[in-house]
Amino acid sequence: HQVLKSLLEHDYPYLNQRYQELNQISCPTLILWGREDQLFTVDGAHYFLKLIPKSEAIIFDDCGHFMAIDKPLEVAENFQLKLKMSKLYSVFHSMANRNKQSSPFELMMNAKREEIQSKRYIPGKASDFYFLCHNGKIDCVRQILDAPDSPSIETLNALQPNGNTALHAAVFYNHIEIVKILLERKCPQTTVNRFGNIAYDEAKTTEMQQLFNRPDTSERFHDTNTTHSLEMYVVSEHYDNTDTNVKFNYVREFQSDDEISEHSINQQTLAMWLKFYTWFTKKFRNYLERDEYHI
């Protein structure tokens, strides 16, 4: 009686949410199922096969729910084979990443992931605002955000006891209009959930991913509106001022060797920063094109 009561109160209301979280599994996964299973039909194997990215399913004929009893040797053999293949996968994966040098941003995000994933969470427990975003209640979300006494967007989007934020939930369930509203309100985008993902990582469609991209940056470093732009004046060819004491700012005069040395150092420093900026923008291009990273 207590087990059934616990299932009805704490598990069944959130089964769909928990099932959808299975698509976050990134490691190779083996699904074993008995074709004659009367408790969970074989359709479940196909359901989980589509849900879990790197999964494969093996269905045993003449086998019920208790596979370890009906097909002990077959179950053991498939487990052993999968473990061997997983070890090979781990070896190749580590070899591929052995020489990969992590950037400061990657190191920071990895530290955040380790910290978040080390905590304990309570499935199904979150704020009312979280569930409004989770369930796509856009009018209610807008009403809370527009309220005079509304908490800050950082508070509303705080990591919940279930290990996710309101933005994570809205992105995961593809509530595009809610995500637009949250991003317009400068909702924090780099919070890591209990799966180690930022909200962008939960996007399943191109349309959702584009919401996080920086707008067109083709005019980022110049202004097409020339109203307030500086004008460059060129001396007229009829300019006849012959005053030899006139000094032009575009001509640099050095009075000593120390000034020359100081100027050279400054030029080298500028060149160094330009090289650093070029490397930085190329290295982190994917991150800089998102709204939350502005330079």
From TrEMBL:
SMART domains: ANK (SM00248). Residues 13-72 form the AB hydrolase-1 domain. It comes from the Eukaryota. Keywords: ANK repeat. The keyword RNA-binding does not apply. Pfam families: Abhydrolase_1, Ank_2. Coiled coil: none annotated. ANK repeats lie at residues 162-194. InterPro entries: AB_hydrolase_1 (IPR000073), AB_hydrolase_fold (IPR029058), Ankyrin_rpt (IPR002110), Ankyrin_rpt-contain_sf (IPR036770). This is AB hydrolase-1 domain-containing protein.
